[in-house]
Design brief:
alpha+beta, 9 strands, globular
């Protein structure tokens, strides 16, 4: 987000207008298939058609699987991959992430789709940002700065995180909220943001940790719980004007 820009209104999440506030020099575009609405930024402009084709492919294969196994779609707890030998690779990634996080596999769907499409584009555009409703796949740079969108919290859009590595790296950054968006949450967090090795894992763990936040004293506890999980490198939790953070990330002031 550019300096001096007011943080987005909570309703902008549904309208995706917050995407216009991104401060990126590379080309960007949106692709939509059914409920999936991806915003993609890359260094090349000729990848839009491929992005749509890959999103359509993953949505079609996952939809066919869900029609055959509706109990998988509706589960709020991890399910064993061995029980679903016909699951497509995307569903297997979701199951692996949900097992670590202790939630149902659909908690990882947005992050899994973002990364699956992103990885199919890397050969043509090695520097990418793929955002799917606040769940983000990043690759190709050595540093990224991201604003934390936390609904009506006074910290929303005013704080952010910087993630970096000595060499160009890949990671997932996902946010779950009880206040923003349509996803199911059993907690009261304005935002829980997780940085992980892969985007499905970040998505599932963000959901799991947001479910645990009932009061402000829970913020530090969920950060500790998240950081002991394999593959999790950073975490931020926000409730009202309070926050907790930890791991391999730097908190930044977006508006300074």
């Amino acid at each position: 987000m550019s300096q001096g820009i007011e943080p987005p209104h909570p309703s902008s999440y549904r309208q995706r207008s917050y995407r216009r506030l991104a401060d990126l020099e590379s080309c960007s575009f949106e692709v939509r298939v059914e409920e999936s609405d991806l915003w993609i930024s890359g260094v090349k402009s000729d990848i839009e058609s491929l992005a749509y084709d890959r999103l359509f492919h993953y949505r079609k294969s996952l939809s066919a699987f869900l029609q055959r196994y509706p109990e998988w779609r509706d589960s709020l707890v991890p399910v064993a991959a061995v029980e679903f030998p016909l699951a497509p690779p995307l569903a297997r990634q979701m199951m692996a992430a949900s097992e670590v996080a202790g939630v149902g596999p659909m908690a990882a769907v947005a992050g899994a789709l973002a990364e699956a499409v992103g990885r199919d584009l890397i050969a043509l555009s090695p520097e990418l940002v793929v955002e799917n409703g606040g769940d983000i796949f990043l690759t190709g740079r050595s540093e990224y700065c991201l604003a934390v969108f936390a609904g009506t919290s006074p910290l929303s859009g005013r704080i952010g995180i910087k993630v970096s590595a000595p060499h160009p790296f890949t990671c997932g950054v996902c946010t779950s909220s009880a206040r923003v968006g349509h996803s199911l949450s059993f907690g009261r967090a304005d935002a829980v943001t997780i940085v992980a090795d892969n985007t499905a894992l970040a998505d599932a763990v963000a959901t799991a940790m947001a479910n645990r936040v009932q009061k402000k004293t829970d913020l530090a506890r969920v950060i500790e719980k998240a950081l002991v999980l394999d593959g999790i490198s950073g975490a931020v939790a926000v409730m009202g004007s309070d926050l907790a953070a930890g791991g391999d990330l730097e908190l930044i002031d977006i508006l300074s």
